[in-house]
Amino acid sequence: MSGGKRELQKLSKTELYQRVTAMEVPGRSKMSREGLIDSLARAGRRSEKSAA
Questions:
Q1: Could you give the residue ranges of the DSSP H alpha helices within the chain?
Q2: Angle, nearest 10°, between helix axes 13-22 and 33-51?
Q3: For the stretch 37-51, what's the b/e string if a residue is b when 16 or more beta carbons lie within 10 angstroms of its beta carbon?
Q4: Which of 7, 18, 19, 47 has the highest Cβ tally under 10 A?
Q5: C-alpha to C-alpha distance for 10 and 23, rounded to whole angstroms
Q6: Distance CA 41, CA 34 (A)
Q7: pLDDT 10s digit of each residue in the chain, 52 long?
Q8: What is the pTM of this model?
Q9: For residue 24, with 0-12 CB atoms within 10 Å meaning exposed, 13-18 middle and 19 or more buried, which class applies?
Q10: Domain containing residue 24
């Protein structure tokens, strides 16, 4: 598990949902807590690549 994903595990589902909402991730309303974490982790990796 990556460091970012470990940090996300510490957040509540509400906090995760707020972050995913801000990123406008499609399908977020049906996601489990793990799904929210996975989406945020993937989005974080994409933004790191585009910043490089």
A1: 3-9, 13-22, 33-51
A2: 40
A3: bebbbeebeeeeeee
A4: 19
A5: 19
A6: 10
A7: 566 899 999 999 999 999 999 999 999 999 999 999 999 999 887 766 666 6
A8: 0.80
A9: exposed
A10: 3-51
